[in-house]
Amino acid sequence: MIDIPGTPGTVTGLVLRISQCVFAAGSISYMVTSGGFFSFTAFCYLVAAMGLQVIWSFGLAILDTFALVRKKTLLSPVLVSLFVVGDWVTSTLSLAGASSSAGITVLYFGDLGSCSFEAECWRYQLSVALAFLCWITIAISSFTTLWLLASA
Prior knowledge:
The chain crosses the membrane at residues 37-63, 75-108, 128-150. Homodimer and heterodimers. It is a multi-pass membrane protein. There is one protein chain. The chain starts with 10 loop residues before the first helix and ends with a helix. With 152 residues, it is mainly alpha-helical. The longest helix has 35 residues, at 77-111. The model has no long low-confidence stretch (mean pLDDT 91). It is built from four helices and no strands. The chain has helices at 11-33, 41-70, 77-111, 118-151.
């Protein structure tokens, strides 16, 4: 297998996983601290998708840390296949949650003008922005692991 920045078990891979975890946790925290996110299904879906992303990214960050400390490689074809499937599933779920939440945010709070609390609208928008940043880092990891699997 070739050496690509962002591969599992490298420093850049660890940075990608930590940034995924931080962006997803930030998205969850801003959404949950707003008052009535339970009223919108898309917002609830975003919280669920980002929760799954936090679990997946945190687990792989721990695995990357272990590989770096022990100087092990995580490039076995079975392990890379698992990373590809997990990354693509969480990437699809995160993009769907971020896109649907962005649509609801624009529709209700921009087009319909039904945002009476400015701080609440600001939290929804920031949560969606962090979800998209999380998705960008997941997409990088997804393409990296797919490239690794294809080059094996």
